[in-house]
Amino acid sequence: MMTMMSSLELQQKRWIVRILWTSIYLFIPFIQIDGQSALRFDISSLGLQFFGNTIYIENFFIVLIFTFLLTFLIILITQLYGRIWCGWFCPQTVLMNFTKFLDIKKQSLVTKLLGHIFVLVISALIGASMVWYFVSPYKFFGDIANGRLDSATMWFTITLSIITYLNFAFIRYKFCTTVCPYSKLQSVMFDDNTLIIAMDPETSYKCVRCNACVTTCPVGIDIRQGMDSQCINCGRCISACTKTMTVEDEDVPTLIDYIYGFSNTKKPLRANVLITAVVTFVFLAGFIFMAATMKPYEFQVFPNSSFLPRYKDDQVINSYEIMLKNLSKKDLKVELQIKDFDDY
Known about the structure:
- The protein is α+β, with helices and mostly antiparallel strands.
- The protein has 3 domains: about 200 residues, no CATH class; about 70 residues, no CATH class; about 45 residues, no CATH class.
- It is built from 12 helices and 11 strands.
- It is elongated.
- The termini are far apart.
């Protein structure tokens, strides 16, 4: 079994993904496009600011379509590449990697205390960044500087920071193995050609029982015992095994690797994959169509509740209220006409 990438390449790529993903998460709220946040739900206007466009609550059905699109896209990725999302892109896993030092068993009291202080600072930053997706970070820091941060924003920030700290400090990867619904559903999405991590049965006899793969596993499984549903495809065991086998046996770079099913046959054009791909494409087409045809205004007509219908010259006189809302960022010129009035 040949390794798809060296241990060094694997570690480098993991760090690149972590830094890139974390940077995107933290800095997107600060990006301004036409005076609006690149991605933020504005509570006051009930509008989702999305890269220069604002999707108001009246057109929020498009967000539902986009959610289905992302859901089936993740299912498609899972069918092809297993739990690659869990090990490489999930915010829980990505951010947890910055606090790996908490997994070290033997630490002095001072080291543990400093570690938890660092985690608390990181948790406060993440808790605040969650709030920035609802409150502009510029307003957030401006209100703090002026001592005008409202109590709701403050308590949401504190609560999210505490939850994040408890997660990082105590729950950690237990969330992945016990609570995460995606972890429970992923086994349904797997087939005989899904990308997994496994030990090569042909070279398994060369295992020196160093237990490095078990020690480094964030979820505590023994990959030598076969595929485990708790495996998050992070590849740490591959790096650990490669490091050991480089010293023990230069002819075998690693005993553990990414493989496409136990037969290691790459077969992307499978029935279940094609069906999921078609459904994903349908939602993508629907999202593009809705985005292209979305009306820049909302128009509604309501009966005037304060005006009672009356007769005059054998005609019914009634009153209506017109509600016209501009959903775009531009001034709109609107002309109202009443057609076929004789039919009423």
